[in-house]
Amino acid sequence: MNCNVMNEVIAAFPIETDENGRLTEQIPYGNGHINDTFRLCCKTQDQKEKNFILQRINHDIFKNPSQLMENVVHVTEYLRGIIISQGGDPDRETLNVVKTRDGANFYQDCNGNDWRVFPFVERSLCLEKVEDQKDFYDSAVAFGNFQKMLADFPVETLHETIVNFHNTPSRFQDFRKAVWEGDKERVETAGKEIAFALDREQDTAVLTNLLAEGKLPLRVTHNDTKLNNILFDADTREALCVIDLDTIMPGLSLYDFGDSIRFGASTGAEDERDLSKVQLDLSLFEIFTRGYLKGCAGSLTRTEIEMLPMGAKLMTYECGIRFLADYLTGDHYFKIHRENHNLDRARTQFKLVADMEEKWEELRGIVERICPEI
């Protein structure tokens, strides 16, 4: 990073520096794959240390940073009001956007790159995988509570920053196009996986049809509900807040539930080559379902609760066809670290889908036990 550009960006925000315009420390932070992230450390006038998170928004993925940041600001300011009304700590229980000195939501530098700043949440940590079942349960409560707090948010005011992000029929058409236009050798290699995906076309529109029929409500959804998008208190290990709000958009609660199950309730890694290690852990499915519904605290409809297993299956299937389509067309979207990496990822998702299908009645039974009234 060019020092002059970094100094230009930092100067645009109300961040304290020394008499030479320098920070105590500025270092790369985290292991995110989308945005460039830095931690900024400064000393206040009374010599107390204060930290911030500075991020460069990846405009290759997020084409309209203005709309993205409008979504983030509107949602976080709304959450801040809810948290204050409940007697919570809004500086730790939600992200907070630091406006520029000119009052803007983000800053565009001399090279056309867009930057934003958040206060660093002190004494917090992220988990990359489930280390303890309580962590998974607490993350479920946090995502459910996030849904509950935003239940009355005017969802129609949010921008769709990535069009058709979780529109499974649209993703299926993208996949079908990739089969038609993809590398012929790769299409032949992935013949079994392509057939698996095509055989389940009838499932792709289940949720979008229910939405169109008015049987599922449109809600504010996070759309990337992995465990590492929860901040935990480093001292108490309790879930603090939901982070990484770039994909906040109108959607279905089932998208958020389903993606969490896909990522967190699998017994194998997302790119596991030994498919015998990949299956749905029913105990983790039940733990997350209990936590999510507790966090939602009655804000979901009966149909939403009934369709929780379908949310898990469709989000896993959708991710699988996205991996497979990227493999067929040359690995342009998802970063790869070995040959056939995206094909391996697709295979793990499809193995998980197949295991869900085998355990379908057990999944429905778990939901019914937790919510017997449905």
Summarize the structure.
This protein has 374 residues and is of the alpha+beta class.
Name the helicity range: 40-55%
Total beta strands: 10
Strand order in the sheet with the most strands: 1-2-3-5-4
Structural class: alpha+beta
Largest sheet: 5 strands, antiparallel
Strand content: 5-15%
- The radius of gyration over CA amounts to 21 Å
Please write the string of helix (H) and strand (E) elements.
HEEEHEEEHHHHHEEEEHHHHHH
Shape, per Cα inertia axes: globular
Distance between the termini: 55 Å
Number of helices: 13
Overall pLDDT metric: 92
The stretches of 5 or more residues where confidence is low (pLDDT under 50) are: none
Describe this structure in words.
By secondary structure, this protein is of the alpha+beta class. The chain is built from 13 helices and ten strands. It has helices at 3-11, 65-85, 133-149, 168-181, 184-189, 191-198, 206-212, 253-264, 282-296, 302-306, 308-328, 341-358, 360-370; strands at 25-28, 36-43, 49-57, 107-108, 114-119, 124-125, 219-221, 230-233, 239-242, 249-251. The strands form three sheets. The protein has a five-stranded antiparallel beta sheet with strand order 1-2-3-5-4, with no helix packed on it. Helix 9 packs parallel to helix 13 (360-370) and helix 11 runs antiparallel to helix 12. The longest helix is centred in the first third of the chain and has 21 residues, at 65-85. The chain is globular and about 65 Å long.
